[in-house]
Please model this.
Amino acid sequence: MSKVLIIGAGGVGQVVVHKCAQRRDIFSEITLASRTKAKCDAIAAQLGGSIATAQVDADNVPELVALIKKEQPKLVINVALPYQDLTIMDACLETGVDYLDTANYEPKDTAKFEYSWQWAYQERFKDAGLMALLGSGFDPGVTNVYTALAAKKYLDEVQEIDIIDANAGSHGQPFATNFNPEINIREVTAPCRHWENGQWVETGALATKRSFDFPDGIGPMNIYRMYHEEMESIVKHIPTIRKAQFWMTFSDNYLKHLEVLQNVGMTRIDEVEFQGQKIVPIQFLKALLPDPGSLGPLTKGKTCIGVIARGLKDGKRKQVYIYNICDHEACYREVGSQAISYTTGVPAVVGAIMMLTGTWHAPGVWNMEQFDPELFLEVLGPMGLPEVVVEGEWPEL
Amino acid sequence: MSKVLIIGAGGVGQVVVHKCAQRRDIFSEITLASRTKAKCDAIAAQLGGSIATAQVDADNVPELVALIKKEQPKLVINVALPYQDLTIMDACLETGVDYLDTANYEPKDTAKFEYSWQWAYQERFKDAGLMALLGSGFDPGVTNVYTALAAKKYLDEVQEIDIIDANAGSHGQPFATNFNPEINIREVTAPCRHWENGQWVETGALATKRSFDFPDGIGPMNIYRMYHEEMESIVKHIPTIRKAQFWMTFSDNYLKHLEVLQNVGMTRIDEVEFQGQKIVPIQFLKALLPDPGSLGPLTKGKTCIGVIARGLKDGKRKQVYIYNICDHEACYREVGSQAISYTTGVPAVVGAIMMLTGTWHAPGVWNMEQFDPELFLEVLGPMGLPEVVVEGEWPEL
Model:
């Protein structure tokens, strides 16, 4: 029976609050905080006011410290912006509270995705006897756990992985991103990197395209190779992996919009002088696009996110595909958010359960593949994201 | 020998200054004024400092009046923004100076193109013994003159006109507009109107597409029907015309960019709240796009703008196509601007010559088709924009 402080009241925050509230056996008290308290209050109202809310600027360590000292939670679940990971980790260290997030830190002015900043907290968390669990969303998060499961149960040696993230749903809008457009566009416009033979290989953003035949009636969709942060920790902690690639589906329409917005400079993350003010184009674009939260009731179809792991079992080549299917409309009915937010928020809650029950607990900074995957998946399935495991053959991507 | 005041130091202003300076027999003194005096000074430097420059806010009547009183020009050539036509006309009335522009007034906050605002000045100019010549660019301007020429010389009765504007050139940029992007995008995203049987017929913006086989080796290009202001005055002053349509070429790439920018709201002309400031998206977009002035040295190819007039001659159906071909690179070599600015700026100078020499002069507010077209074209050809007249048959558009 623990008190939890959730920071961030976007689509994912809403899911986290709803799912924590379903498990009052673990989360006896819940406080939701955000820069805009009204967003927290709106979510609290969905739950009949059974959670507390607070205002906090997550860029500001003293404000965070004051809030944590006042609330005295056992764990802080950070579902704010990735820019804010370090300030929240600093505040947890200062107040002696465990930490969990769903996306790695990135600086605001360069689209540079790497764990170095957060891994640098290793000694400080260890010395303080505190735990930080990094990337407990779906990808990163569950994809790390699926890879660890392949390594533990299905293969003696995982040699290659393809992480494949399909959103086969549609929101019916001409253009909208399914989560924070600023984060989404930064990610997909960054150069691609994949892991091959002990090093990162850089190629053009979305320059490598394949078709993949998805299960569960989804069928073939175009997938594009891109960098995604879980590869960095997975290849570090499962060093038998000599090739790791991440793939995501994008519709032709999405790519057309992205190309044009890049051409005209609207995806720029640097400041532009305009009418005597400094404006970051991508932030202005975000202000014009539909609020991802507004897409929930409009989105139909499924997501399919999973890992194809290939390697050796008893000396022979073997492949296993571990994935989850999630339905946008079912998610919306349950928690008022579509599957993109749901698949990120539910694993955060399961990660929190792992930590608060002591199932996964050790001082230091940890990635998801470093703990027993089966213990996590035993909780994740009943919480709404069951895995499917298929052994078979898939074409090389 | 007259003094002229040119207001507006964009691409067209630069052409106007260069061409006036070629005709010192008419334009003995030239002053160029703009909100940003540095832009005027840069153009003056191209001409070895042989013109004067000044700073003026063309939205501000008292400032305009003070400048005109100080300069005492015989004529004001307005090549500023269309929003500023009325303030400059007011200042001309107050100071007793003739007026010429190249584009009709439109209010800043609605894309509404009509002559009503400027025609309302008719009595005041007449009573003051002053002349205002409206729309002395290429289209409006030369296209009005071509139509008047067809009515005077080639047909007894002009019944239908198709004004066709092709830019068969390329600047090699992913996306850029050839003149002020704010004005350009407002124009092409407005609903289409064409004249048919005594009334305006409204259809979707760029919804009607045809292919037209252009002369002079340009060949077939896609053209799109849109509203263009010269139709309003032409059908008023040449009332035998029962159908008038305006067509412009757009590349698939341009249309793709336009579609996306509309989808995301970047072409909006209303104010959006952003970071505590009010921002008009299309103005922010303009700040991001390449300055049309920078495209001059990059643009290759030709423009072809003209009018197909169809009607009766000696009781029989007859068609005549009157057009001009202009080469981007040749324009740039001559005046440092590409053909889009050149074809607008040269007719403004010819209109000024018509007025200052008394060839076309009468008190009141006038459109181009109301004067003798041959007198205008006799000057326009030697100034750089000769017309080609072809009698033949063209498919109905």
